[in-house]
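Q: Structure for this?
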Amino acid sequence: MIWIAIRMLTGDRQKFYGLLFGIAFSTLLITQQLTIFVNLIERGASGAYNVGEAQVWVMDPVSRTTDVAYALPSTALDKVRGVRGVEWAVPHLRAAASVRTKDGDLEGVAIIGVDDATLIGLPKRMASGSIDVLSQPDSVIIDDVGTINMFGADVDPIGERLELNDQRAVIRGIADSIPSFTSQVTLYTKYSQALRYVPGTRNRLSFVLVGVSEGQTAAEVADRIERDTGLKAETRDEFAQAGVDFIIENTGIPTNFGITVVLGFVVGVAIVGLTFSLFIRDNIKQFGALKAIGVTNGRILRMVAAQAGLVGFIGYGFGVLGTVGFMWAFSGNPFFKGFYIPWQIPLISLGAVIVILAITGTLALRSVFKTEPASVFR
Amino acid sequence: MMATIMDPSAIGGCKPDAAICTRGVTRDFKAGQQTITVLHGIDTDIRAGELTFVVGESGSGKTTLISIMCGILYPTLGEVKVFGTDIYRLSDTELVKFRLQNIGFIFQQYNLIPSIDAASNAAVPLIAQGMGRLEARERAKAMLERLNIGNQADKLPNQLSGGQQQRVAIARALVHEPRLVVCDEPTAALDASSGRRVMDLLREVAVAADRACIIVTHDNRIFDLADRIIQLEDGRITHDGTTMPDGH
Ligand SMILES: Nc1ncnc2c1ncn2[C@@H]1O[C@H](COP(=O)(O)OP(=O)(O)OP(=O)(O)O)[C@@H](O)[C@H]1O
Ligand SMILES: [Mg+2]
């Protein structure tokens, strides 16, 4: 009987394709939008993740993320270095600045000042050049996505001169980094150099980055730093999460993506529900005949479930493939750098597909169940 | 009241050789506020090995009666025994199973499944009984051969003429060798000679010593083909014999 059910459905090309389209469309919309959403808000953590070596971030108690930070007095560095379990501690500066390019365009950039001696604070990999270039005068390293935003994809920015807050800066390397949430251009330079770029308020130390001694966990050391110094200290993961939370709390992004996902679901229910009930209505005589001949409601249920299952399986497959295709097609776009599909998302859209089919299948089944077998003689 | 000596093999007043036996079958339908009684206490016995016609004016209750006889419509009152089984005492599931094993249906609109071929359509009752698809199709093909459309077995219903579709529907009704075959207005859509041909065919394949065959019709052109004619008027049996009374 399952075979008959499948043939009933696939034999009705228009409705079969309509159902597949509905499921594939919903799956695509839900999977793709959730993927972009998750990747986008994870950009809130990029500042923390780009600095691979720092196990603990120390900051002013009011600071929240890499971009929302209140400067510390320079004495904080020595205080942190004095805490037990701190293997090393280096200064880290983050500030906003304006840059004037050769063409005279003005652009807002982020400046990151990394420790002069160790260069801790740079991204793990370079896309072009070596980190040693920072020892040359006026050197800055630009992030790869920022390069494309500022100069376009075809221009090699190495050697480009910039006017950075009225100071001279020369790009001498490109870092391979996770773009920030705003995809803003980021310039890395030595801490001492950064102090010159960022006009002088008294306190300019944004963070102290800490590595912990062997045998200590980051969480223990962070607790001890907080207790001993009165500053705020977070492990790398805590600080990354804080960046994500900040975006969730302070932007309309969750609402916007949420609305799209809900729309995907609703449109799926509408298309699939309508098509499914049309299909059932067109075949109600046949279902009635089967009931008269001697097919129980239980078997009818299994038949409709098989039809829904087939539609769900193929439609979902197309939807996920479509998302993968989309991500692949845009993988060269700097906006999508590092985007991936978290494994939970296809599971969520699978759940949505199952719910869509359960709702619409139940509605369709009801009309079959209500059909009197005696109606076949009318 | 006098005590009567009952035939010990008789069941509930039914004749022992009755294929179908109805006692006091009444059926009401709700039409808005009022209730209309379509059948008024039908008592009848249908024998196996005969072609029984149920005839009567439109609206006289023919379809309602055979629907009740074949287990797809509950009577409001009364009981129905089909080959000794009191079918409306069965549970829903048992009744469905009973129909699957014992009853063949020929619907007026053949209700074939459009996307499977003639052989598969004819094989539906066997597949529903749990037989493998290939074996069921072989049996269905043999039945289509008997109905002279063996060469159409691989065609879809919409590739067949109306008469051929009807033969597929007949094959589907007979493929599982049911003991009761019911058929509502098989000739209504056909011209006189095609109508007679279908009836000849039904007589040939559907009538057997151990099988009852009931045909509902108001097509008086074929009344002479019946072994027995039951006439309904306003839900009552007004005639029961081997021919129609004079004047029809
Ligand atoms: N499901 C139903 N609901 C309400 N009334 C019904 C229903 N089925 C049948 N009736 C009524 O019962 C009466 C008998 O109907 P039935 O279909 O048995 O007649 P019939 O003899 O088969 O007529 P025809 O020759 O036109 O097919 C009709 O008046 C019809 O309107
Ligand atoms: Mg009728």
